[in-house]
Design brief:
The complex is a heterodimer of chains A (about 280) and B (about 270).
Chain A lengths: L10 E13 L2 E7 L3 H4 L5 E4 L9 E11 L3 E8 L4 H7 L6 E8 L12 E6 L6 H10 L4 E7 L8 H7 L2 E6 L6 E2 L2 H12 L3 E5 L2 H14 L2 E5 L15 E5 L5 E5 L6 E3 L13
Parallel strand pairs in A: 7-8, 7-11, 8-9, 9-10, 11-12
Antiparallel strand pairs in A: 1-2, 1-6, 2-5, 3-4, 3-6, 4-5, 12-15, 13-14
Chain B lengths: L8 E3 L8 H4 L9 E3 L16 E4 L2 E4 L7 H15 L4 E5 L4 H12 L6 E5 L16 H13 L7 E6 L5 H10 L4 E6 L1 E4 L5 E5 L4 H14 L4 E5 L5 H9 L4 E4 L1 H5 L3 H13 L1
Parallel strand pairs in B: 1-2, 1-12, 2-5, 5-6, 6-7, 7-8, 8-11, 11-12
Antiparallel strand pairs in B: 3-4, 4-10, 9-10
Helix pairs in contact in B: 3-4, 4-5, 5-6
The chains are: A alpha/beta (about 280), B alpha/beta (about 270).
Chain lengths: ~280, ~270
Amino acid sequence: MSAPAPERTPLHVTGELLASRRIGAHHHLTLVAPGIAERFRPGTFVALDTGPERLARRAFWIHKVKTTGGYGATLELVVEARGAGTEWLVSQPAGTRLAVTGPLGRAFSLPRETVPCLLVGEGYAAAPLFPLAERLRERDCAVSLLVAGEDEAHLLSALEARRSARSVTVVTRDGTVGQRGSVADVVDEVLQRSGAAVVYAAGSTPTLHAVAQAAERAGAWSQVALEQPLTCATGLCGGCPVPVVGESGSARLVRACADGPVLRGDRVLWDQLAGAS
Amino acid sequence: MTLALTSPVMVASGCGGTGRELAAYGALADLGGFVTRSITIAPRAGGPAPRILETPSGLVHAVGLQNPGIDQFLALELPWLLQEGARVFVSVVGRSLGEYGELARRLGRTPGIAGVEVNLSAPDVEDGSVFDAREPFHAASVVAAVHRDLPRGTPVLAKLRTDVLRVAEVARAVLDAGADAVVVGNALPAAMPDGRPAGLSGPATGPLALRCLTEVVAAAPGATVVASGGIATVDDVRSALRNGATAVQVGTALLHDPTTAHRLHAGIGEDEA
């Protein structure tokens, strides 16, 4: 019944955009946001303003935390411009000041023991899996990666993926790189090959559902990073309900932002979740 | 009875989460009051997603009064809020006068709360699952039921919607029925794109709330009136206070910037210094 430890509590600060680069279909934004990088754990995200006309915040995965000379630690975010808010954000020049809240949400849990892990990432949502892979390797966990995207442009850091994992499987919808198909087509086989005891996934809701089901079939734990529309992203508004099965076995609603975004895949009531089909 | 607030800045119902989330950005004890999301007798799961949409001038929301019910609230949420030093105003909503009375009795046996805010119309649930009290007589009946079942000395705030044409009349009726303060500014009735009943909150509601504030202040001189609706800047707070409000409630602005209430509290404090 006590407040969260101070180093885990999010901050609301004025940040500065240091760089905005287009990489494939995504934009990589580098931000200075004092204190937030220091509190980052893989799976957490930040909420940003997207211009004076828009009331709701927009949430973005933290992809990297880097220590750069002169600025202290910086954050790298991956943005796919899909609407007026994200279009505004990616068009801002370096030097733009932005209100940044974070790190928000519950991070991926790391296994207590040294076990093989499979990381499944789809499109820009694969962003939090790369720092997760580093943390897992520090714990001597064998890391396998399954990276998916519409096409080559939507694959996040495919080259980097090869450096950070024991094995990498790539699938694209159009077959331009790797195997043609989707995560659902290959996840059972990759899971079996990796011998993973824990599966971590970030991507669209149908993909996460497929991963959670495959993990159950294989007897593995799954942790899925859900992406739901968020208004405040801080847990205040109650606008992002996720139906889950609680410890007691009864159904209840949790908030995607404050109780997630990372949830146990076997706890999510996928059929009742918006956008699940 | 006055509310004896240490700061004129309060957190509006439904925009402060359980309190724990907001406490990350500033001490709850610093604020004039923390109004809980509306609590019902039984737990409510709330409405389906999407629940909140952005519009050019406000947020449209159909959360559907999601809350854990009075038992869970009293057992799990209230003790933590009180321990943090928050001045807790519990927002209540019922399906009948009987339920309002029951909520008041339960809260009356609970030490430590600063007051009860009666939610007199929740625009995002018009399916008969709450008692709609826009008529002055109905509103007064609800307030009387709550007032009667609370111990003397527990302030009752009556929260009125700003679309009521007879807002001054409703205010007089609830004050006569025992309300210690009137909160002017619930969400305006709106609809989600699929037609579900919803509320509209945010900047668009500011001028409406201010108009209702001035009417209520004129109609009930000396009454304690709290302004809510479109409060986002220190100037908004000053304007509300200048027009006769005793305090303000900050809602939608917190969803954009969780530090808003603390910033306004600090800004208004500088005025007095």
